[in-house]
Write a structure and sequence with these properties.
Two copies of one chain form a homodimer. By secondary structure, chain A is mainly alpha-helical. Chain A is about 70% helix and about 10% strand. The first copy, chain A, is built from six helices and three strands. Chain A has a three-stranded antiparallel β-sheet.
Chain lengths: ~140, ~140
DNA sequence: ATTTGATAGTTACCTAAGCTAACTATTAGC
DNA sequence: GCTAATAGTTAGCTTAGGTAACTATCAAAT
């Protein structure tokens, strides 16, 4: 079998298993994957507009709107006023930030468990390769 | 940021981009990801029962039932009679197999494009690492 | 041989999370 | 100022996952 086939077969299986376990962790806190990915972004980037999130996560705007609405309803987000009144800029609220650090611990535990036995060098090398692959995919979408 | 966090952030982003492009390819043939993963399994394993597929893909039985039903309706699967009359063993029909080789070409093209510039050795090493990670996840689920 | 328990699959139903199409409200460019 | 483009929303569809409860068949123990 082609090494590319083996690669992606393993890649997909691993992703599905990972998503499964991640969901188990998140559900303990009443969260879902899509919500978590937004909180994660806001933890690393302070604030974001919906379009920014849509681009980053590579989903359409209505998908983001819905997830944001849910996070707002729970009270994990707050608005950041800006001068462009079309856009809606959000950041984590205090309770959102509090929850994030808590869940982050549990997710770190899961992730580090999965990576146990794999050296930091190998992790970084693999991350680098994945970035390269991601870049190949992005450049296919050029006509944005 | 922890290297595990960077790893999984990249991992998830890459997966989502990949799934997106894979879907684009599959849709040209009227297929979806879940259907494709079953055809892929049957291409590598000749035949399978629903439970076998559920275990491999790590989803529940009703999910498999539905996807199999769809593939049957399109005519890509046929039954393999066996002595245990509880189980339903399926394989690809002729038209399923024909479609598979066709789609396989397109998917190979996509996958090889994504992996371009990454040596076969690196691909294999990364596959090995992913297998190791997958194994960590599986062993967490021991009580099966 | 019969009963009991496990296993394979199905049915019905719920939910998350993606999508498109069509819309409003702003802003930017000419 | 008018027109284009951009940000976001609403409505509605679909895939694909999940549980709970069920039937049919088989295996094992008594």
């Amino acid at each position: 079998m082609k090494s590319s086939q083996e690669f992606f077969q393993q890649f997909v299986l691993l992703y599905r298993s990972f998503e499964h376990h991640l969901n188990d962790v998140l559900n303990d806190y009443g969260l879902y994957r899509a919500q978590w990915s937004i909180l994660h972004y806001l933890a690393k980037n302070e604030s974001a507009t919906l379009v920014e999130l849509a681009h980053y996560l590579r989903v359409e705007k209505p998908t983001i709107t819905r997830t944001i609405t849910r996070l707002e309803n729970i009270g994990y987000l707050s608005h950041v006023p800006g001068k462009d009144r079309r856009e809606k800029r959000v950041e984590m609220s205090e309770s959102g930030a509090t929850l994030y650090v808590e869940v982050r611990k549990a997710v770190d535990l899961l992730e580090e468990g999965i990576l146990s036995g794999i050296s930091v060098e190998q992790q970084q090398e693999t991350t680098r390769i994945m970035k390269q692959m991601h870049h190949h995919l992005i450049s296919k979408e050029q006509p944005l």
